[in-house]
Design a protein that fits this description.
Layout lengths: L1 E5 L4 H13 L3 E6 L2 H16 L8 E4 H7 L2 E4 L3 H11 L8 E4 L4 E4 L2 E4 L7 H8 L6 E3 L6 H5 L7 E7 L2 H12 L4 E5 L6 H5 L1 H11 L12
Parallel strand pairs: 1-2, 1-4, 2-3, 4-5, 5-8, 9-10
Antiparallel strand pairs: 6-7, 8-9
Helix pairs in contact: 4-5
């Protein structure tokens, strides 16, 4: 399966790109608004993986080209860039594709980080509003610590809650999630439940900030 990571040069994009290329047989495409930046990052990822004995080819392309090549498109961009990014690639998306949003809207004050719920109900629902009507949208990977995800020297036992209205699309994303070693996918129900999942991320950041030894905190449900 071809996976495009729009914004694949950023923190969460890097982590997902490296883990999928390292742990799974899927083909990874790094996307960016700047094609040269995407190509340079893709080369960096290849070098890192080669140092670990994994020879893979990772393409780096402009977001539109990356989306056109992929079966699953992950909009790994900050919430404030999400709508523009999805709209920019909308003509390249097909009904057989799956669009994934891991973005979380947050604001910060003296007390810490807080969920910034948009008028659409959730950031994932913002992505759905920007995508073509016939392209299924799934929310996943919201609560993953990007630093630990990108560090291939460390392991983890994390859960990611996956939400979506299209059962087949959700199953595809859950299978992709579980192709990453140490990651378990849990069904969180329809897209309407995305806000509850997204709101956990600022909680994790606040707990990590105020407790020693909890850097790069993740979730595991038992």
């Amino acid at each position: 399966m071809d996976i495009a990571l729009l914004g694949g040069t950023g923190d969460i994009g890097e982590g997902l790109a490296l883990r999928w290329a390292y742990d799974s047989p899927h083909d990874v495409i790094v996307g960016s608004r700047d094609a040269d930046r995407a190509a340079n990052k893709a080369e960096e990822y290849e070098t890192e993986l080669d140092s670990r004995g994994v020879e893979v080819s990772i393409d780096g392309l402009a977001n539109e080209e990356a989306a056109a090549r992929a079966d699953v498109v992950v909009a790994a961009v900050p919430a404030y860039h999400l709508t523009d990014t999805v709209e920019a690639v909308a003509d390249e998306l097909e009904p057989t594709d799956v669009l994934v949003s891991p973005a979380v809207g947050m604001k910060r004050d003296e007390a810490g980080f807080h969920y910034n719920r948009p008028g659409a109900g959730s950031v994932t629902q913002l992505a759905a509003g920007a995508a073509p009507e016939d392209v299924p949208v799934v929310g996943a990977f919201h609560n993953l610590a990007a630093g630990r995800l990108a560090n291939l020297d460390v392991t983890f036992d994390w859960d990611t809650v996956v939400v979506g209205d299209d059962g087949d699309a959700k199953a595809t994303v859950m299978e992709l999630a579980e192709s990453i070693d140490g990651l378990r996918a849990l069904d969180g129900g329809p897209l309407e439940n995305a806000a509850e999942v997204e709101a956990v991320t600022p909680l994790l950041i606040n707990v990590a900030r105020h407790n020693d030894g909890m850097h790069d905190l993740g979730l595991e449900f038992r």
